[in-house]
Every structure is written in C-alpha cells, then in structure tokens.
Amino acid sequence: MSADTTLYSATFLIGFGDCDPAGIVYYPNYLRWFDSTYHGFMRSRGKTHQIFCNENGLIGTGLMDVGATFRSPGRDGDDLVISIVSAEWRDKSVRFNYRGTVGDRLLIEGYEVRGLFMRDGDRLRLAHTGPLKAYLEGDDGERPRT
Predict the structure, then answer these.
(1) Which top-level group of life is the source organism from (predicted)?
(2) How far apart are CA 118 and CA 116, in angstroms?
(3) What DSSP line would sit under 76-136, residue for residue?
(4) Which of 20, 79, 91, 139 is catalytic?
C-alpha cells in the first residue's frame, strides 16, 4: 500500500476504554475504526450508506474479507488518523486499503474487501460495484446488475 494517495481520512481519539489491560489498543477497535472511516467516506460524498443502498436496490455493502498488520501500539490519548489510501475495484468486490497513524508513526496497515449485496428471492446476490465506484468517484453511476 502506498501513502502517496489519500481518498479519505478520519481522526479518532483513542480512549482508555479502547485499550486492553496492557494499555494498548484492543485490536478489534481498529476494525471498527476502518468501518467508521468507510462510512465517513460515503457521507463525505453526500449520502449515507442506507440512502445509497435504498436508491440502488441494495441491502448493504458488506464485508467479505478483512485483514491488518500491526506496526506500533496505539495508546490512551493518541489522536489516531485512519486513511483510505486506495481502492482496488473488481466487478463484484472492492478492496479498500487503510493506514493508521499517530503523527508520523505508522500504527496499522489493513484492508477491507466489500461487496454490494442485493436480495434475489430468499437469498443474497452480489451486485456489480459500478454504482459504488461512480458514487465515490463523483459520477452518476448505474443501477446495480446481478
């Protein structure tokens, strides 16, 4: 992942309750902050996740895979900046790559792979990512296809 491009960033104050008994961030909190950053990215384009899904016949943009590499500990009182540094678009999935920093110190690198899910009778089906890509990149887009 490259730090050259930032698609969106959000800042989180790490609190005492975010940390484990050793005083460092409890790892699931990073996944929560990745998710919050993704939803902030959507809102920064003018719509909430729910509005986007309703307008495109989707039930959600769900996680299909997630991973992280921890580089340095985050601690109570740190201002953590989570940035989406790139998006890798595929026909029916998108991988968002994240970096988390406190000042110049890298804490975490990670990713989420998301799909656009819609109902097909009584089951779920992956839709094409075109509408999400168009929305996040500022185009009008198209209705999801299966």
Answers:
(1) Bacteria
(2) 7
(3) TT-EEEEEEEEEEE-SS-EEEEEEEEETTEEEEEEEEEEEEEEEETTEEEEEPSHHHHHHH
(4) 20
Homologous superfamily, domain 8-137: Hotdog Thioesterase (3.10.129.10)
Active site residue 4: no
> What distance in Å separates the CA atoms of residue 63 and residue 45, rounded to the nearest whole number?
20
In the chain, domain spans: 8-137
| pTM above threshold 0.85 | yes
Mind listing the pLDDT tens digit for each residue in 43-73? 999 999 999 999 999 999 999 999 999 999 9
Coil, strand, or helix at residue 144?
A: coil
